[in-house]
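Deliverable D5.2: sample structural annotation.
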Amino acid sequence: MKIAISGYNGLVGSHLCEYLENAINVDILKISRQHLYSDANLLAKYLDDSDVIIHLAGAPVVSVWTKKQMKIIRDSRINTTRNLHEAISIMEKKPELFICASAVGIYDTISLNTESECNYSNDFLGQLCKDWEREARKIEKEYVRTVIFRLGVILSDKGGILKKVLPIFRLGLGGKVGTGEQAFPYIHIADLMEAFLYVIKTKNTKGVYNLVAPEANTNADFTKILATCLKQFAFIPVPAFILKLLYRKGADVLLKGQKVVPERLKTEGFHFKYVTLESAVNSFLM
């Protein structure tokens, strides 16, 4: 099996390349930025004979949201997905499966959201995800099975939030972000890898999946659990105004959270190894 992956050097992509090479008999084709932004005909030629295409590339969302940066964030997702669609439409032998990353940021911060809900946010991140998914769904018209993963906060010791906050919490200088009341939809990197393998192997899977753990938590829960696991204090909160000074509107990614349920994975019998936040956090501290 030949699997092409964009964003292969990111947190998810780097884990995924290593995981798939060990889990199944696969040849990994790495889609570089140069390939991703190239002419669609050249991209199609590069992707020739790919059985699966996984699109993970995108500029970091946690950043200062200037007009210029917001355009970079959008273009790195919308334009690249559009180019992949055009390339796939040209390919004589089309892939069997296209997997596109999205985010739970598509949802509002009020409702409890399963995949069947349409309680979408109208802020920058919500609109970004809606437009991104709209481009991905166009690939279905090429008779390619298409899966969209709405990712929550990814827990990994190789990057992401844990790598950033662990040194602070180990010193007893950790604390909740803002009020701490915002939802904290997370997924352990191991469960995320299993979800990719699940949709690759399960031929009748298609459409949107919420990629979060079944347990509902808040940022305050995460703060308490991490501090407890490290046997440290966590009394130094990060005030909202500090984050807004640093990231402007980009602070919303940290100060807001979505209540999300992985309804489809649960219904289909997918087995989560890390169903509680405590077990997920502890797995990186053992």
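Annotation notes: DSSP finds twelve helices and ten strands in the chain. The two ends are 35 Å apart (CA to CA).
The annotation will be released with the project's public dataset once the embargo ends.
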